[in-house]
Amino acid sequence: MPNRLLLAAARKPGLKKLITGTPITKAVARRFVAGETLEEAVQAARNLNTGGLGAILDYLGENCSTGEQADAGQDAYIASLETIVSGHLDSHVSVKLTQLGLDQSFDGCLARMEKIVARAAEARTTVAIDMESHQYTDATIEMYRKLLGTHSNVVLCLQAYLKRTARDIEGLLPLAPKIRLCKGAYDEPNEISFDRHETSRNYIELLEMLLLGSEYTAVATHDDLLVRAAVKTARRLSLPLERIEFQMLFGVRRELQIGLAERGYAVRVYVPFGDQWYPYLMRRLAERPANMRFFAEALIRG
Fold first, then answer.
1. What is the dihedral sign for C-alpha 98, 48, 36, 27?
2. Is the pLDDT of residue 299 over 50?
């Protein structure tokens, strides 16, 4: 589980105003966020491609409150896809459904997703659906099912710290899903989620389910134990390299990313951008003690 105290503190408006208004904090955020503009994200993706790594462009934002904001999110992703095509980038996009109006209307969100996925298909690339907090799990999986009925270029993120995820995978496997498996980064109740140790154990079990039953599995982790488990499991099952892709975050474990790519594994890096970087930054700090130490040391040096 991520650091709950930090996530709780991050929801306080006064703290958010203090952190986002501090130039030093913005500078530190650039460790984990490519920038506030699409152009900055594209340059980061191009640099990754030059180094043999793929990219995932993520326009930051969530829980929009109006249809106009949801339409703006849709337009931002269409623009990202256009730039991927014109820039000949090895990249796809990742979206949050609440950024596209899920809180207001499932059907409205679906219509926006249809447009994004159709344009991605024309661009011969992929749309990944991020998983948000547990209140949205059912709706997110239902959205994926509906999109999968007409499109094959959609990936769904599932979270290993939720106790329900094994059942969700079992229900999706007959559809030949493409799944991105991560640990999870939201503050979830104990009754529906595992602790850190249990999450790692569950991750390995879920990974084997996916590698056995799916043609594509994205292993989204920086945890050395889980990376080794993924490699070991894929070898034991005699799977071709293209059946597995490691996905990691911009600014985290760069040496691990490069090392896996040099060993022949596909590696794709999640490249967030936009001015709504605060929630994303706080989840990254809450996930790993090393990130928090980096943040604190940068503030002291600043």
1. positive
2. no
- Helix orientation angle between 137-148 and 165-172, rounded to the nearest 10 degrees: 10
Angle of the 278-287 helix axis to the 289-301 helix axis, nearest 10: 120
Q: Which residues contact 178 (CB under 8 A, 6 or more apart)?
A: 126, 154, 155, 156, 214, 215, 216, 217, 218
Instruction: Report the C-alpha gap between 229 and 204 in whole angstroms.
Output: 7
Query: What span, in angstroms and rounded, lies between the C-alpha atoms of 192 and 25?
Result: 33
pLDDT confidence tier of residue 37, bands split at 50, 70 and 90: very high
Catalytically active residues are: 130, 180
- Strand segments, DSSP code E, in 35-187 are 54-59, 91-95, 127-129, 154-159, 178-182
Contact 56, 247 (CB under 8 A): yes
- Token readout for 20 is 């986002």
Report the pLDDT value the prediction gives residue 287, as an integer from 0 to 100: 60
Q: Distance between CA 296 and CA 95 in Å, rounded? A: 30
69-121 tens-digit pLDDT:
999 999 999 999 999 999 999 999 999 999 999 999 999 999 999 999 999 99
How far, in Å, CA of 212 to CA of 214, rounded?
Answer: 6
Q: How far apart are the first and last CA of the chain?
A: 30
Amino acid at 187: D
Q: How far is 141 from 158, CA to CA, in rounded Å?
A: 9
For every residue of 11-25, which 3-state class applies, written as one string? CCHHHHHHHHCCHHH
Q: pTM for the complete prediction?
A: 0.86
